[in-house]
Amino acid sequence: QVQLVESGGGLVQAGGSLRLSCAASGRTFTGYHMGWFRRQAPGKEREFVAANSWTGVSTYYADSVKGRFTISRDNARNTVYLQMNGLKAEDTAIYYCATALRGRYDERPPMAGEYDAWGQGTQVTVSS
Predict the structure, then answer these.
(1) Distance from C-alpha of 85 to C-alpha of 13, rounded to nearest angstrom
(2) Cβ–Cβ under 8 Å, residues 124 and 10
(3) Is residue 50 within 8 Å of residue 82, measured between CB atoms?
(4) In 1-128, which ranges are continuous DSSP H helix?
(5) Pairing mode, strands 93-101 and 115-118
(6) CA distance 125 to 128
(7) Please, are residues 128 and 14 in contact by the beta-carbon 8 Å criterion?
(8) Distance between CA 88 and CA 106 in Å, rounded?
(9) More confident residue, 73 or 28
(10) Helix (H) or strand (E) holding 21
């Protein structure tokens, strides 16, 4: 059974930093892209934040976080990270990690519908 467990969320002042982690287990994750999404308010759609390929060579970011957030991964630990710097009040959200099968050396970004496993989320609150 696939399990994705996020951690590292919390309350931080605007301008501060947090590092989210997502540990994956339950199957091999070779060839899987891993991504971060967020939902900023109940009833709002979950939006893409960042993703990277299995090799880590290709990374993708939403325009709203470019230059502030960095995604990375440790395949030996089946873990993906999201370093968030320069946090703003509008970054307040529940952050979810997800996986999408793309193949080892397929660097193309997945479509949203290709993400097939999701974590339960971790709350990030940025006070202004």
Answers:
(1) 11
(2) yes
(3) yes
(4) none
(5) antiparallel
(6) 10
(7) yes
(8) 33
(9) 73
(10) strand 18-25
- Measured distance CA(116)–CA(104) in Å, rounded: 17
Task: Render pLDDT for 82-116 as a digit per residue (tens, 0 to 9).
Answer: 999 999 999 999 999 999 998 888 898 898 889 99
- The residue-averaged pLDDT of 34-62 equals 94
CA Rg value for the chain: 14
Alpha carbon distance 86, 67 (integer Å): 9
Judge residue 1's burial from the number of C-beta atoms within 10 Å of its C-beta, 0-12 exposed, 13-18 middle, 19 or more buried: exposed
Nearest CA among 102, 107, 108, 120 for reference residue 37: 120
Neighbours of 30 (CB within 10 A): 11
Which 3 state secondary structure label does DSSP give 112? helix
**Torsional class of 26: left (φ above 0), alpha (ψ -120 to 50), beta (otherwise):** left
φ/ψ of 6, rounded to 5, equals -90, 150
* Tokens linked to 84: 């968030």
pLDDT of 122 strictly over 90: yes
